[in-house]
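Quick question about two entries, pasted in order.
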Amino acid sequence: MIAGILGWSGIWGTGSALVEYLIPVPVAGGFLHVPSFVVATGIILISRRSTGLAFRYLPVLAFSTLAVALSLMLEFDRLHAWLFTDYQPPGSPFRLDGNPLLLFVATDAFWVGFYALTRGFAPPARAWFALPLVPAVVIGLSVANYQMSGPTFKIGGPIHTSSRGEEIIMVFTSADYDEDAFLNWIQQDHDFARPWFDANAEHVAVLFTNSMQMLGWRELDKTESDSTIATICLYEEDRSIVPYSGYHDCFAERLTLEQALAALRASEPTGLGTDVDSWYARLRLCDDVEIPEQATMDIAREDLCAGVVRGYPKTFQRFVEKYGENSAQVNFISAQAASRGLNEE
């Protein structure tokens, strides 16, 4: 009922946990209740036959277990953001996450404690003073671990610029600038931010910032501020990874495929039609591209040039059909292709 009131979803993605958590079978969330339920039932059965002094402390132990379970259910990432960054998530910093196992432990501990009190188990009054210390210790250990566990890195979602193939990824970090540390962190994940494995990116700028708010709100207008500790640029055409201190514009010195083709079309128009200009720009761009026999990466230039070279016979035939075999367009295309070792067969 508590999970349903809090609006939690079931562990299998059902709309509400209210029903699922009540079903104690392996295919439902209620199965996670079995361990704590068995333990709680055993404690109650044993305590019914016991008059030992040790059971005087059962209420304090049960409610301490309740406090531990509730404390562990806190969204610590949210709490840490409140305490140690400039980002203040909306609402309270103290929120419970949807952890069914801890919820079951908490509810069973509550009923054990309630039962112990109704049975008259009465610990010394001073024992109750330990109860508020329990959540304080759990939260304190979490905070201490956050501060002592080394630099924090939190990745934001990719942001695409107005130019196709350019991508920005912001990463919050608590570390100061350390080129080797940042490079090592990026290289730990061989797929992260690698444009040569991403069909939608050619050039990627990874911006390391000490502002969680800039990451959370995607404040691109503040990337050039002192909040950007480091920039690492990744380029797919040569698989390079280039680090810079502070902010650096990774896109100013390199052209994406689309930008390079546009520049080539503008620099040397053929005067024979836009389709001929487009083909000639692609052909010229491929002069500096080495085409692998078998593609193992998603490199836009290599993919384009493989199509230009291997698809030339069909391309030539389309121009013949459109302009005629002895047209200026076909003669130009044939001459340019021949000078690069391409033939129509």
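Here is the second entry:
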Amino acid sequence: MMKSCGRARVFVPAFVSFVSFAWCSGAVAAPAGEVVLSLSGTGDLGVTTVQDEEVLLASGTGPARLLVDGGTLALHFGDRDQDGLDDVPGDLDALEVVPVGAGTPWIAGVYFSLVSDQAGIQDGDVVRFDPGGPNGGLEVVWSEAQIQAAIQANDGNVDVDAIAIAADGALWFSLAEDEASGPSATVIADDDVLRLPPGATTAEVAFTGAQLEAMVQTALGSSATIGDVKGIDVDATQMIFTVQSPSSDDATVFSTLGGGSVHLAESGMGFFNAAEADAVAFFHGVPFPAPSATAANPKANDAVTVDVFGATPGQPFVLLLSGVVVPAGAAPALAGYGTLALDPQDPMFLVGLLNSPALASVADGNGNGAISGKIPSSASPYDLGIQVLDTATGRVSAPIVLEVNQ
């Protein structure tokens, strides 16, 4: 795909002054080996603790780090229980990322399945985030009923806990528990991986659990048993996957290459606790910074800190603010997340750029930083959208929203 690039100028406060930053549209390849992960519990990375629904980026060249905060997921998941607040999805039990086009939010390429039913979404559904789409921001691409029929599950109920979408459109998946299938009650085990070809109604076995267990044993040089297959993804040459055990490697990303190999080792991800990967996918795009606020629903005069991860080490970053948030994007293509989800014509956006030196800071040597402030005195409820601009690369983060006085 042809790539077009340009430069833009944004006035930011104080020492950053006028910052010229690049924007690009078109396909940009991710560095080889990078994956995204979601965990089955919290993950202690020292600088922050990530929750089981949040998305991490891991490259093998340093510790894993937050990529998509729960606030971003809530913005796109929406207020599904109609209580006036956006809902954070439960544990992401399966995860897939596909490339998206220029000017499209990165999250529009994210597919997932939940660990349990939530707000009308079943734990066997495969769902895509669809910012600005007709179905409230979510699209059920494969329903639990379709998958149940594809494997002829005798109990009429399936729980999907690993997904991948191949280049040909086939759905690869694994189940959270063993299922009896068909008249002979053939057991589909929770460590088997199945494939549903495009247009087909019947799934086929791509890898058995025994085959994958043998690959893990080859990769580790041990006689380990793997338990459940927790996450998968496929490309033209391999399937990567994560498994339930051994516990020392239940966040390690394995590959089918070479009859079984380690794609990324848990030991290099920087966890301070016994983290377990619940889902894995190849990363597509270019890495972008991640904001995470200490409060999702602050009140007037509350102190709030926005932590920032994945900025350029030693370089300035800026918080962009807006009271108008457009999940599908409100501006031309920008590097990183893909688009500005804030309204650049909103008075809050303009005032923030022109008059708030406190919205700029410099990342430390690891690319982390923080900006603290106080919510203005106001009794009125409003949404405060936040994106991070990395001034060295021109990449913007995914958006988060603070639902103030709500």
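Reply: The chain is about 10% helix and 35% strand. The mean pLDDT is 89. Hope that helps.
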